[in-house]
Amino acid sequence: MEIDDRKRKILKSVIKTYLETGEPVGSRTISKDTDLNLSSATIRNEMSDLEELGYILQPHTSAGRIPSDKGYRLYVDEMMVDKDREVTQMQEIMIQKADRMELVLKQIVKVLAANTNYATMISTPQYYRTKLKFIQLSIVDENQLLAVVVLEGNVVKNKILHLDHCLDQENVFKLNILLNTHLNGLTLEQINLDIITKMKQQAECHGDVVNSVLDVVAEAIREDEDLEIYTSGATNIFKYPELSDSERASELIFTLEEKQQLINIVNDTLADDDNKGIQVYIGSETPVQTMKDCSVVTATYELSEGMQGTIGIIGPKRMDYENVVNTLKTLKVQLDAIFKKT
What we know:
By secondary structure, the chain is α+β, with helices and mostly antiparallel strands. It is built from 10 helices and 11 strands. Helix content is 49%, strand content 19%. The relative contact order is 0.11.
């Protein structure tokens, strides 16, 4: 007997419900699944066929069903195929979007510098307080696992995990189910000690793998390696005598060209939940030491998918604040419209 699409959907519903509750699953429970739209009688017949085929078991008379190892195997194998396909598609789409975005941001920061006569910066949009979408573990060899972590916004991070002991396919797919059941949809802040303890207890002797995966998740969410900052108008600082002496000017130009210190401005801007609009840093208020004689005005732009980036204008303390603030407010609105088309 072949397992058709309807049986696959019922099996998937049985497994997902059992993973959530830990209790045998009955036909009445499955009939409440709006995606199936089937009667309890039809579901009972299909579940009997699935039991005959060995995909589910009835642990006790008159009890519901639970997945068998064969049922888990079909579920996980098909899930992995789907996730592999989804990861590949997402990577291709994100590469195309990144190329278009880079061109747009470079043009924006160049025009902004020309219009204001100040130095300018703009960061690529990043997901802030990112949620975990799913995790996929795959065996590379007897002592290595590939962990693929997919974050909100379809950001994909890969990491090789080195193991102290061997894992077979059976244990890997059970770990995949365990990790995704507990962690999907959570931010890093929501992954608390209680969740970690439960996962490690359920993983039993493979708790070290859970620890390693959690480290990968934390690294993927926190890392700044994909953060790009584009700058323009560095030479505009020579137009202002108070910034143009050789030592001060060279420090500023180095900061704008090297860009690493500018990450502090981006992180400071995005971390302020109470002020996601325009922020003005005057002199020593700026998080960048070499800009202590400047004023820095920043704005957080947010795209429709929840991505956030920072626009900044760097100039003398006597900058035209009203014009700069109005320019940034206008640009915030324009950026959203621009990126909806990219």
